[in-house]
Amino acid sequence: MFGRNGIDGAGCVKTAGPEAQQGPRHVAVIMDGNGRWAQARGRPRLFGHHAGAKRVREIVNACPDLGVKYLTVFAFSTENWNRTQTEVAGLMSLFRRYISKETRALRDEGVRVRFIGDRVRLDNKLVAMMDELETITECNDRVHLTIALNYGSRDEVSRAIKDLVGDVAAGTLAPDDVDEETLTRYLDTKVLPDPDLVIRTSGEARVSNFLLWQSAYAEYEFVDTLWPDFTKEIFAGIVSAYCVRDRRYGGTRS
Ligand code: FPP
């Protein structure tokens, strides 16, 4: 298992001076503002989602130099099914397009891709493409990109509890052995360290059911920039600012 929030991460960004700290090993991003970005240009919302997808590549590529080993992005929530049928269908088609267009580059650039979320409601073709991308990139270790697709934290925890209770009923898990660590092993994110930093774009200061369990001790950064305008320079600035934060995990300054 990883240590708490992976603060022993490699390849860290340092600031000069005695206040220097390690950079975030795992950054999670709520990519918000695609719709407003498109509307401001008189274009349909999907135009903003396409522009947003391009930013994902730029931010993934920026990670190694910033010492960010894990990047998790919120692409589609369990609540996003409530959008219009046109937008949902357009997003699903964008995910398929993104996977087929980006697979080779992701593989060649050392990116390991994983998906979290419930795949049951996704169409079979998309799930097959997700499985294939995970397999093709499974030996990569330069950056670990996790895409949350049909993901919601409450849904994830409910599914985890259902599996855990199943194991208790089957006699393979003793009720007395159930603790925080046990539940963590049943989550979609079981192989990932906890996020150190969660960024939300577009000026909204909400967490929207994203990695609630995993982000118990994460630092949060809410920025006004709309996701399609979120450049690698803005990302680098946030990562640098994180380095001088004082994370105490409920304890006191040592
Ligand atoms: C929220 O913005 C964004 C989404 C629900 C979709 C996020 C998807 C992408 C960035 C593109 C695809 C990503 C990958 C990894 C292929 P919003 O539409 O709610 O914006 P608004 O608040 O301005 O309406």
Keywords:
254 residues; alpha/beta; disordered N terminus; Undecaprenyl pyrophosphate synthetase; binds farnesyl diphosphate
Can you lay out the helices and strands and say which pair or pack?
Elements: E1 26-30, H1 34-39, H2 45-66, E2 70-77, H3 85-108, E3 111-116, H4 124-136, E4 143-151, H5 153-170, H6 180-184, E5 197-200, E6 219-222, H7 232-242
Parallel strand pairs: 1-2, 1-5, 2-4, 3-4, 5-6
Helix pairs in contact: 2-3, 2-7, 3-4
The structure holds farnesyl diphosphate.
Farnesyl diphosphate binds next to helix 1, helix 2, strand 2 and helix 3.
Verbal overview:
Helix content is 39%, strand content 14%. The protein is an alpha/beta fold and 254 residues long. It has a single domain (24-238), classed as Undecaprenyl pyrophosphate synthetase (3-Layer(aba) Sandwich), CATH 3.40.1180. Strands 3-4-2-1-5-6 form a six-stranded parallel β-sheet, with helices on both faces. Bound molecules: farnesyl diphosphate. Farnesyl diphosphate binds next to helix 1, helix 2, strand 2 and helix 3. Farnesyl diphosphate binds at residues 31-36, 45, 49, 52-53, 56, 73, 75, 80, 94-95, 98, 147, 202, 227.
